[in-house]
Specification:
Layout lengths: L6 H12 L7 E4 L4 H12 L2 E4 L2 E6 L2 E10 L3 E4 L1 H7 L3 H23 L11 E5 L7 H12 L4 E8 L2 H7 L5 E6 L19 H8 L3
Parallel strand pairs: 1-2, 1-6, 6-7, 7-8
Antiparallel strand pairs: 3-4, 4-5
GO molecular function, one term: glycosyltransferase activity
Protein name: Phosphoribosyltransferase
InterPro entries: PRTase-like, PRTase_dom
Length: about 210
């Protein structure tokens, strides 16, 4: 049974848990699906909203299975146990990362154009996604914010796997998660409406911000 009607409702519920965040907090959504959740959080907190582009490194022939992730600022993480289990050579991982790097650059330009990224140094940052499976993309996002000098980093997700939450907790100052269900398999089943978020929708949500 689903827990959330859609990403907007999930964002509203997350915002209730994030009330009391410091003034000047920056809310960053992970495109694509995390941006609608983040937009609701930012609106209710009266916070600045932007997107933080992260790309999952999908296994060959299994694109939904994360073997790592990359993020803005040259951040790259690799799930070494997964790479070993699949028997992937380093040059294969490099090729996947290079391909996703091109897509990351394209998306950053598509979402932001020539507008510079928001100032991060010394600020409290809340990184939002619509759910957490392996945790690889969120870890990359958090490390990117650490590298940019964020004073405090909170990860906020409506739902997470136990493994994903365990992976992420040492990386953040706080993890806000509404549900960690037993038997978690994927994020989608916990939403009644989990339709794909388009690039145009992301741009539309970011434009007012």
């Amino acid at each position: 049974m689903y827990l959330f009607a859609d990403r907007r409702e999930a964002g509203a519920l997350l915002a209730d848990r994030l009330a009391g965040s410091a003034a000047g907090v920056l809310v960053l959504g992970l495109p694509r699906g995390g941006v609608p959740v983040a937009a609701e959080v930012a609106s209710r907190l009266g916070a600045e909203l932007d997107a933080l582009t992260v790309r999952k490194l999908g296994a060959p022939g299994q694109p939904e299975y994360a073997i790592g992730a990359i993020a803005s600022g040259g951040i790259r993480i690799v799930n070494e146990p997964a790479v070993l289990r699949l028997g992937l050579a380093p040059d294969v991982v490099d090729a996947i990362a290079d391909s996703e790097g091109h897509e990351l650059a394209r998306l950053e330009h598509a979402y932001r154009g020539d507008r510079p990224p928001p100032a991060v140094a010394g600020r409290e940052v809340i990184v939002v996604d619509d759910g957490l499976a392996t945790g690889a993309t969120m870890v990359a996002a958090v490390r990117a914010m650490r590298s940019a000098g964020a004073a405090r980093v909170t990860a906020a997700v409506p739902v997470a796997s136990g493994q994903g939450a365990q992976t992420l907790r040492p990386e953040v100052d706080a993890l806000v998660c509404l549900a960690v269900p037993d038997g978690f398999m994927a994020v989608g089943p916990y939403y009644r409406d989990f339709g794909a978020t388009t690039d145009d929708e992301v741009r539309g949500l970011l434009s007012p911000a």
